[in-house]
Amino acid sequence: MEWFIAKIFAKYNYWVFILLMMIGFYGIIAKDNLIKKIIGLNIFQTAIFLYFISLGAVKGGTAPIVDEEIIRKGYVYANPLPHVLILTAIVVSVATTAVALSLVIRMHQEYGTIEESEIIETSKDKGMTWT
Amino acid sequence: MNRLKLITLLLIILLCALFIYVAEDIPVFGDPNTPPLKSVELFTLEVDPLASLLNQHIVPETLSGELVKRGFPPPSRVEKIPDLEGEWNVFIAKEEPRYAKEEKYYWVKKEGDKLRISRYAFVVRWIEKGLEETAVPNMVTYGLADYRGYDTLGETSVIFTAGVSVILLLRRRSRL
Amino acid sequence: MKDEQRERNIVVETVVRVMIPFIQLFALYVIIHGAGGPGGGFQGGVVFASAFILYVIAFDLAGARARFPESANTIFSSLGLYLYAGIGLLAIIFSSGAAQYLNYGFIPFTSDFYENRALGMDFVEMGIGITVMAITASIFFDLSQKDEKESEKEEEESK
Q1: Interface partners of A (3+ CB pairs, < 8 Å)?
Q2: What is A2-125's CATH topology?
C-alpha cells in the first residue's frame, strides 16, 4: 500500500493529463460535426500545456517575480522556463483555431453542410474517389 | 462481450501496467531536486584525498582531469557553500563580451563514501542573476523578450501570418 | 439591406458605452507593467482587442467597422512587427563590429548597459501588443462577416 501511494498516487498530474488528452483525442477522431472536432483539438492542446507546466512546479513555490522581501523570508521560486515556452504555444494554438474556423466557413459555403459524412457523400457525387 | 471491446480493455490494462512500470523514474510532482530544476548528475569519485583539498580552496587534479576527459569545460576555482557541511560550488571562467566573467557551473556533494559531481541546470542562472543582468523584476518577461527574444520575433510573425491567411480565405474574389 | 428588426436593450448599451474606455486603459496598463508584475505584450494586446469585440456584441458590426476602419487595421498590424525588427537592426548598427542582433544593451537610451536592456524590452513589448491587438480584431471582424450571396438570397426569399 505504501508503494502504491508513494509511486502512483503522488504523481496524479500525469493521470489528469492523460485523461484530458484522451478526451480530446476521442473528440477529434470519433465525432462527425466539424466544429466538435475543432473543440477536441483545443482540449488536446490544453492537456499538453497542463503537462508541460506541471513539470516545473515546486512544492511551496511562489510566482516567479524577484522581490527582496520574499528572498529574505526564504521562499523558493517556481520554475519560470516552462511558462515562457507555453506562452508562445498558446498563441500558436489561437492562430491554428482561427484558420480552422475560417476553413469551416468556406466548406459550409461550398457544400451547404458541416457534417463530415454528408460532405463525403456530396463529394462522391461530384466525382471525387475515396478509397 | 464484443471482440473489439475485449481487445480495447486488454490494451488499456496493458498500458496501465506499462505506466506503473515506468512510473518509478518519472519525477514526483513538486520535487525541487530533480534535473530540470536544480542539477544533472555527472559521475562520482572517491572522497578521501579530495575533501581536504576542496576545503582549502584548491581544485584537485583528478577532478579537472575527469571533467576534461568527458568533454566539459575545465574548472577554475572552488568555493564552499556557507552553512552547509560537505558541499562545494565549482566555478568556470568564460570569455563573453559584456557578461560576467565567471559562472557557477558544477556542484560537488559528499554522500557517505562517495563524492557526487553534478552540473547546475540553466534555470539556476536564470533565477539568480536575472535581476542584475537585465534590471527587470519579472522572470518570465525578461526570459521572453531578452534571453529568448528571437523566438518571440518568430512568434509575432506566426500570428501575423494567421491573420493574413484568414483574410485570404474569407474575402470574395470580387472584393479582394 | 440591413432592415432586420433587431431589439435594442438600453441597459446593455449604456453599460457597454461606459465600460469600453476603462477596458482599453486596463489593457495599456497590463502592457506597460509587464516588467514589474504579471503581464506583458500578448496578454495586453488580447485585452485591448476584447474591447472591440464587446462593441460588436452590444451594437452592430457596421458601427464597429466605421470606428476601426480597414486602413488603420493594416497599418497597425504591420507597425508592431516593424518596431520589433527595427529595434534589432538598431542594435546591429550601434554595436559597431560585433554584430549582436537583439542585444538591447548597445542602443544608447541611457548611459547604463543594464538600464538599456530594460528600455529595449519595453519597446519590444509595445510592438507585440499593437500587432496582437490588430490581428485579433481583424480575425474577429472577418469571421463574423455576413456573406454577400447569402444576404441576397435572404432578400429574394423575403420579398
Answers
A1: B, C
A2: Helix Hairpins (1.10.287)
